[in-house]
């Protein structure tokens, strides 16, 4: 399996998704548009890892701008394990190529990737890890997260990269974060999200059931709870995501860097042809959708309403989390994905986003472990890490 | 029928910050070479995030205070999307939903002009077209330089009011250190319509975009007035709401291509920038740092005994004020200083075609001190001042090297006067036979002998005494 689109150092221990910048190494974000784009600086998270002695091994392949299901829209080709679609970043961890992979999570791709590859991934609370150096699509919800084999490794790497960065205006003021693996799971109450459990395939339901049994064996209480805002979260997030993505990728226009069409008669043609050639179907569809929801006359009904829905969803989820320590829910519908043609993929991405939208739109921390997803209140990464670690050690 | 103009202005002013609005590149002091002052952030590279320059917010709030605005203590930045090569990220960060200042006013003579809002935004870059090679070049030096846009209400009724407003705006902004208002750093969009005098309804509106010279603005308004009135009275054309541009060569406005103006900018709040909260304490600090306005300054000068008209001229220009205040603080007589600045300095500025008074104020202070203490004559002082303007000479050194500092006593003048009278029989004769003009040539000869160092009044008195003896 080819893990890296660009190798940096054989001795490196960290893989970095191609949506995150490493100075001097091409960063293409899986897009033809940025095939030959080499950044002048590294992401803050990368800098912090290097400073702490963690070398970067290489850049892992991602779907175009990280918008898709499992990397299938990458200009450099999809990554497969046998007949199954997988992501290079999660597989590199699984194979022991690297200790951890950094990915950008806004539409849930690294969460799905961890679930299908059977490794751990955490998307920390929004604002705790600097987004400086991320090829940005959705500023209001994207976060750099960590994929690793277990909770212990995640804790180690997350501790290095989290903390205030003055170069990111959305970075929270706390300088450093301490994470724990030893919160007492036996006293925890976990809410199994009814609406999402019902949407999952029987394979995934079995995974959830098994995880639930493990938690109960450890003394935790698991109760089925209705969180009746899941489809609102999905739709609102789709609107916010498309709008912000449309705006953020508009800088890729063939003028300054990246792909420029061979022949053009004027500036409009340069724009249209470069972008037509440089983006794939999923990105183009997102651009069209995003520019529509921001259009004059639709802004209030679509974008503005989604901002308000974001608050309603957040209130609802926080209300549940005031009684429960964490939510238990699927990370994706299936445990196995095949290759899709681009149109199927487009539908599939929307369908699957229902499982990941809750943590994305609220900015709450989410962790994938044992093929299931856990979501906790803001800054409660230790709750998630402790659950994952305790269950992992129990099973071992 | 009599018609009246209805005009509203959108004025863009470059802020005097040390760095750009969202990155640490240098701000208003424009660099010389294209793309000298550019970083990954202001050239729209992926991965860079904007961080708000607080000084720009402070300057905007100051402008708000000056124009009697309400300050929005919760203010946000929004994205305005459009494609143009001079806009590297394909969006401009501006304030659409919550501008920093709203609902102000400014007095122009006996009229009050309403200010709808003042918002902060980033400037775009510059396109340079080379016709020879049919190529366009982009210069990003100006991208993300902070601007404020001051939006007036449609309260102007004549081009004179517009010009008076812009002049006042310029001097106030310079005064408060908000903007240098250098050539081209203040740009105006003029919204103009015409209606029968006394009517409450608004006519069809034209917007003339992006003008920076006052004479251009005045001419464009006058042109539009005639065009609108002709259209209404003589049906020369059908007026439509449109955006136009002023052609300085053809001396008229032209409609801009529809395509350039029909954009939907798709405004939405910029999620990369948290709302800026201007708390009471910060607001108090900004207010405390406000300098006096030109009017306040003028009043202070009048109280020093300077004539109203002269005080107003001094107060209208920050550089003049700076020099004046400095020299007066050195203990010189305010009236004398005003006269030196308004006559001698401005004379030199005119002669050398300088737009601002850029001399070291210590030098002017020293010259005036020497003259006031009769160490040198006023004429010598003027000579030194000219040299300061031309070659930035050292006052005392120049004085000594040119023999200007010799203390001239009456005895010496007396002997020169006698010498000149003895050597110029004809002029003396002319004077005595009633041609008083001859006095002037004798006076000139004495001055020449003294190399301009003698006190003119003393020379004149001594000459008259001798000639009339």
Largest sheet of chain A: 11 strands, mixed
Q: State the share of residues found in helices of chain B, binned by percent.
A: 40-55%
Radius of gyration of chain B: 29 Å
What's the oligomerization state? Answer: heterodimer
Which class best fits the helix and strand makeup of chain B? alpha+beta
Spatial strand sequence of the major β-sheet of chain B: 2-6-7-10-1-11-12-13-14
Q: In total, how many beta strands of chain A?
A: 13
Uncertain residue ranges of chain B: none
Total number of helical segments of chain A? Answer: 12
Q: Quick one: CATH class of chain A?
A: Alpha Beta
Largest interface, by Cβ-Cβ below 8 angstroms: which chains and how many residues each?
Answer: A-B, 42 and 31 residues
Structural class of chain A: alpha/beta
Just name the CATH architecture of chain A. Alpha-Beta Complex
What percentage of the residues of chain B does DSSP assign to strands (E)? Answer: 15-25%
What CATH calls the topology of chain A is Amidase signature (AS) enzymes
Order of helices and strands of chain A: EEHEEEHEHEEHEHHEHHHHEHEEH
**How many strands, which pairing sense, and closed or not: the largest β-sheet of chain B?**
9 strands, mixed
Our count of helices of chain B gives: 16
**Please, what is the average pLDDT of chain B?**
89
Helices and strands, with pairings:
The complex is a heterodimer of chains A (396) and B (469).
Chain A: E1 4-7, E2 14-17, H1 44-51, E3 56-60, E4 79-81, E5 84-86, H2 88-94, E6 100-105, H3 109-117, E7 120-123, E8 143-148, H4 151-161, E9 189-193, H5 194-199, H6 202-217, E10 221-225, H7 230-248, H8 267-278, H9 281-293, H10 300-323, E11 326-330, H11 342-362, E12 366-369, E13 372-375, H12 381-395
Parallel strand pairs in A: 2-3, 2-6, 9-10, 9-11
Antiparallel strand pairs in A: 1-3, 4-5, 6-8, 7-8, 7-12, 11-13, 12-13
Chain B: E1 3-14, H1 54-66, E2 70-71, E3 74-75, E4 78-81, E5 91-94, E6 101-108, E7 111-122, E8 126-130, E9 135-139, E10 146-152, H2 159-175, E11 186-196, E12 206-211, H3 214-234, E13 242-247, E14 252-255, H4 258-261, E15 268-269, E16 276-277, H5 280-288, H6 294-303, H7 308-315, H8 318-329, H9 334-351, H10 361-372, H11 378-391, H12 395-401, H13 410-423, H14 425-432, H15 438-449, H16 456-468
Parallel strand pairs in B: 12-13
Antiparallel strand pairs in B: 1-10, 1-11, 2-6, 3-16, 4-5, 4-15, 6-7, 7-10, 8-9, 11-12, 13-14
């Amino acid at each position: 399996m080819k893990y890296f689109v660009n190798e940096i150092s054989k001795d490196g221990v960290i893989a970095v998704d191609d949506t995150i910048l490493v100075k001097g190494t091409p960063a293409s974000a899986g897009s033809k548009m940025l095939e030959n784009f080499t950044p002048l600086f590294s992401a803050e998270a990368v800098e912090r890892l290097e400073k702490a002695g963690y070398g970067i091994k290489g850049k892992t392949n991602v779907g175009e701008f990280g918008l898709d299901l499992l990397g299938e829209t990458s200009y450099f080709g999809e990554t497969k394990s046998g007949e199954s679609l997988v992501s290079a970043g999660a597989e590199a961890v699984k194979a022991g190529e690297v200790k951890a992979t950094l990915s950008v999570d806004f539409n849930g791709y690294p969460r799905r990737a961890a679930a299908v590859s059977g490794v751990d991934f955490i998307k920390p609370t929004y604002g705790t890890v600097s987004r400086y150096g991320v090829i940005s699509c959705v500023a209001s919800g994207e976060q750099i997260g960590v994929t690793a084999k277990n909770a212990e490794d995640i804790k180690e790497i997350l501790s290095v990269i989290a903390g205030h960065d003055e170069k990111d205006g959305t970075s929270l003021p706390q300088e450093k974060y301490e994470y724990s693996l030893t919160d007492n799971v036996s006293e925890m109450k976990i809410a199994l999200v009814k609406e999402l459990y019902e949407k999952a395939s029987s394979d995934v339901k079995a995974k959830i059931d098994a995880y639930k049994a493990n938690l109960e064996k450890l003394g935790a209480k698991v109760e089925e709870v209705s969180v009746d805002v899941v489809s609102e979260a999905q739709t609102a997030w789709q609107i916010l995501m498309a709008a912000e993505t449309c705006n953020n990728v508009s800088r890729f226009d063939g003028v300054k860097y990246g792909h420029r069409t061979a022949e053009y008669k004027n500036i409009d043609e340069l724009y249209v042809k470069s972008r037509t050639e440089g983006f794939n179907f999923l990105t183009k569809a997102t651009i069209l959708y995003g520019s529509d929801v921001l259009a004059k006359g639709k802004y209030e009904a679509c974008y503005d309403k989604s901002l308000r829905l974001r608050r309603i969803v957040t209130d609802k989820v926080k209300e549940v989390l005031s009684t429960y320590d964490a939510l238990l829910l699927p990370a994706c519908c299936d445990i196995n994905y095949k290759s899709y043609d681009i149109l199927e993929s487009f539908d599939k991405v929307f369908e699957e986003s229902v499982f990941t939208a809750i943590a994305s739109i609220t900015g709450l921390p989410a962790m994938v472990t044992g093929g299931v997803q856990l979501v906790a209140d803001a800054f409660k990464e230790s709750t998630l890490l402790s659950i994952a670690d305790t269950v992992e050690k129990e099973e071992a | 029928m009599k018609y009246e103009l209805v005009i509203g202005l959108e004025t863009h002013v470059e802020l005097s910050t040390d760095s750009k609005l969202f990155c640490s590149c240098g701000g208003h002091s424009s660099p010389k070479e294209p793309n000298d002052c550019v970083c990954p952030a202001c050239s729209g590279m992926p991965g860079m995030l904007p961080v708000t320059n607080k000084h720009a917010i402070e300057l905007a709030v100051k402008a708000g205070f000056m124009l009697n605005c309400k300050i929005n203590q919760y203010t946000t930045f929004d994205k305005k999307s459009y494609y143009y090569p001079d806009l590297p990220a394909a969006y401009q960060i501006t304030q659409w939903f919550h501008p920093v200042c709203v609902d102000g006013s400014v007095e122009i003579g006996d009229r009050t002009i309403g200010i709808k809002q003042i918002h902060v935004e980033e400037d775009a870059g510059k396109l340079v077209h080379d016709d020879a090679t049919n190529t366009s070049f982009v210069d990003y030096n100006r991208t993300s330089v902070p601007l404020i846009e001051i939006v007036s209400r449609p309260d102007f009724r004549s081009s004179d009011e517009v010009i008076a407003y812009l002049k006042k705006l310029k001097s106030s902004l310079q005064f408060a250190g908000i903007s240098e208002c250098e050539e081209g750093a203040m740009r105006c969009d003029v919204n103009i319509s015409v209606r029968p005098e006394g009517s409450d309804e608004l006519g069809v509106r034209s917007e003339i975009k992006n003008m920076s010279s006052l004479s251009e603005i005045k001419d464009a308004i006058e042109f539009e007035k005639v065009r609108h009135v002709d259209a209404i009275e003589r049906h020369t054309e059908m007026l439509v709401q449109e955006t136009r541009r002023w052609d300085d060569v053809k001396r008229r406005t032209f409609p801009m291509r529809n395509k350039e103006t029909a954009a939907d900018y798709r405004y939405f709040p910029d999620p990369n920038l948290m709302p800026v909260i201007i708390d009471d304490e910060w607001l108090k600090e900004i207010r405390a740092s406000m300098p006096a306005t030109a009017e306040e300054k003028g009043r202070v000068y009048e109280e020093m005994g300077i004539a109203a008209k002269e005080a107003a001229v001094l107060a209208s220009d920050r550089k003049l004020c700076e020099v004046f205040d400095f020299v007066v603080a050195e203990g010189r007589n305010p009236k004398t200083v005003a006269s030196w600045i308004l006559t001698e300095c401005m004379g030199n500025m005119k002669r050398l075609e300088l737009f601002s008074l850029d001399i070291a104020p210590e030098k002017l202070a020293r010259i005036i001190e020497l003259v006031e203490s009769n160490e040198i004559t006023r004429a010598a002082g003027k000579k030194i001042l000219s040299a300061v303007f031309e070659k930035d000479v050292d006052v005392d050194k120049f004085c000594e090297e040119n023999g200007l500092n010799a203390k001239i006593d009456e005895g010496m003048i007396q002997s020169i006067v006698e010498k000149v009278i003895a050597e110029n029989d004809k002029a003396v004769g002319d004077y005595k036979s009633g041609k008083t003009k001859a006095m002037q040539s004798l006076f000139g000869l004495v001055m020449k002998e003294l190399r301009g160092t003698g006190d003119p009044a003393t020379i004149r008195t001594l000459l008259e005494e001798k000639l009339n003896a």
